[in-house]
Amino acid sequence: MENSSQESHLRSENSVTYDSSYPIYAMAFSSFTPSLPNRHHRIAVGSFKEEFNNRVDILSFNEDALTLKPVPNLSFDHPYPPTKLMFHPNPTASLKSNDILASSGDYLRLWEVKEASIEPLFTLNNSKTSEYCAPLTSFDWNEVEPRRIGTSSIDTTCTIWDVEKGVVETQLIAHDKEVYDIAWGEAGVFASVSADGSVRIFDLRDKEHSTIIYESPQPDTPLLRLAWNKQDLRYMATILMDSNKIVILDIRSPAMPVAELERHQASVNAIAWAPQSCRHISSAGDDGQALIWELPTVAGPNGIDPMSMYSAGAEINQLQWSAATRDWIAIAFSNKLQMLKV
Question: Distance between CA 309 and CA 13 in Å, rounded?
Fold first, then answer.
């Protein structure tokens, strides 16, 4: 990451935009590197149309030529808008010779992304009593144990899947209300956030208990997103509904945030830790701003300014920071996906 002056602006000449025919919400970077020459980074994008028929496209990002284009034959129909997309976090550990993409919505689905086609692998239903499934709000793929995916649902549960076998490993009633997001820490430890306003940590070795490490200052203010710092598992970040704050938590000192980042002018919608740094986090929101923050080594709760900022000119719904393209973040607003060099 380049050193930036205080509140410097991300340079617009180091950006590339893809215009879709539909509003974009879900996005995911692939870290898969096939043997074919001239293969560029892949990004999956999902439509957000309020109808049954939705779509996922795979884009090719050429970092040198600054191009972002859909890949012929790598688009497929998706039932309902995908609430999240995520590629296999460790493709070399996959049993397949191709990339694997997961999507959540009405069910958890896995897709095999080949060079010129996409094939469905599994459709996984977490309901034990019905062919219908409570909608899935989000999921996370375990980097340490890639056979595991954890899903969060509006029915208050989190479900841990063994996706190599296509079976439920365990299902927990995680919260008192809808669960909005889930994030893995270690192989058997995950955290979730909920409409009940709490961040809870679960250890699969002791499924009967969870640890509440944060609760909304205003009771029952929903927590919408959770990001666990993979470079330093002591830290995680969450955002509250209709709030301009990013709350930084240290799991060693529950209840009291170590920092609250409050420079957005409207609600924050998305957060992502830098893949290569434990002290950098990005955020985006309804104010059309994408901000990058450097957390101080000695944390103070207030007064932190972003180190760089970018204005999209429209509400930003989604943001991703890729381990494969560490100098780039992707933002989604309206029907555009934009890559920004940081």
Answer: 14
Whether the Cβ atoms of residue 263 and residue 300 lie closer than 8 Å to each other: no
State the Cα–Cα distance between residues 174 and 194, nearest whole angstrom.
9
Which residue, 126, 122, 145, is CA-closest to 134?
126
CA–CA dist 341, 13 (Å, integer)? 9
pLDDT digits (tens, 9 = 90+) for 22-81: 999 999 999 876 555 556 889 999 999 999 999 999 999 998 889 999 998 999 999 999
Name the one residue in this structure whose structure tokens are 């104010």.
Answer: 287
> 291 has which bridge partners?
283, 309
> In Å, what is the CA distance from 55 to each residue of 58, 77, 79, 194?
10, 4, 8, 27
Three-state DSSP state, 92 = helix
Cα 219 from Cα 186, distance rounded (Å) = 29
CB 110 within 8 A of CB 99: no
Element (H, E) at 102: strand 99-104
pTM tops 0.85, yes or no:
yes
In whole angstroms, what is the distance from residue 10 CA to residue 291 CA? Answer: 9
In sequence order, the β-bridge partners of residue 338 are 17, 331
Sheet of 259-261: strands edge to edge? Answer: 223-228, 235-240, 246-250, 259-261
The answer for residues whose C-beta is within 8 angstroms of residue 143's C-beta and 6 or more apart is: 89, 90, 184, 230
Whether the Cβ atoms of residue 294 and residue 284 lie closer than 8 Å to each other: no
